[in-house]
Amino acid sequence: MKNVNVSLQPGEQVVATARLHLGAVIVPIVVLVIGLVIALVDISPALNQFRVLAVLVAAVGLWATINAIATRLTTTLVMTDERLLGECGVMSRRKMNVPIRNLDSVVAKRSIVGTLLGYGTLVVNARGHGNLRVEFPQIAGAEKLAEQIRALMAAPPKPAR
Questions:
Q1: What is the pLDDT of residue 10?
Q2: Pick the residue with more confidence: 46 or 107?
Q3: Which of 117, 119, 126 is nearest to 144 (CA)?
Q4: Cβ distance 85 to 1 under 8 Å?
Q5: Phi-psi label, residue 112: left if phi above 0, alpha if psi -120 to 50, beta otherwise
Q6: What span, in angstroms and rounded, lies between the C-alpha atoms of 58 and 54?
Q7: What's the average model confidence in pLDDT over 20-30?
Q8: Ramachandran class of 128: left when φ > 0, alpha when ψ lies in -120 to 50, beta otherwise
Q9: In three state form, how does the secondary structure of 27-46 look?
Q10: Quick one: average pLDDT of 121-133?
Q11: pLDDT value at residue 65
């Protein structure tokens, strides 16, 4: 959805966009660094089992970092004056294109870390799409975006073109 303007209807305008917060990548990087530091520190031969554990932690951290970066690069939310468009995923791609009038509810959930770093999970529920429920985790400014979507949901419908 890099070029969202291509999929806009005539007269439709982008109201807001959102991406994954950079904090989504911080935790995996910290795990990777901790695993590497412990694996590379010279410890006594009696504690070699910790080195194996540290290498495993580093491997998990590396996998999680690659996954987080790929997810950050491929997740986009675009709110127009008529629709909510969403796209995420690398291997299994999820796309969402829901008219604002079909949204039932939009909620922003935040964990303690999300509260500290300024991100949250945006939960979108829509009717008429098989009771669609989509969660977009670690969205920067999720509460502000949820408020903007709710304001559009409460606005009177636009006249038909």
A1: 83
A2: 107
A3: 119
A4: yes
A5: alpha
A6: 6
A7: 87
A8: left
A9: HHHHHHHHHHHHHHCCCCHH
A10: 81
A11: 93
Q: Is residue 67 classed exposed, middle or buried when 0-12, 13-18 and 19+ CB atoms within 10 A define those classes?
A: middle
In which element (H, E) is residue 137 found?
Answer: strand 132-140
Residue 133's DSSP bridge partners are 125
Closest CA to 86 of 148, 12, 19, 158: 19
User: For residue 47, what are its two tokens?
Assistant: 């504690």
Name the nearest CA neighbour of 134 among 110, 98, 161: 98
> How far is Cα 55 from Cα 36, in angstroms, rounded to an integer?
7
Q: Is 23 left (phi over 0), alpha (psi -120 to 50) or beta?
A: alpha
Separation CA 3–CA 15 (nearest Å): 15
The gap from C-alpha 161 to its chain's centroid, in whole angstroms, comes to: 33
pLDDT at 5: 52
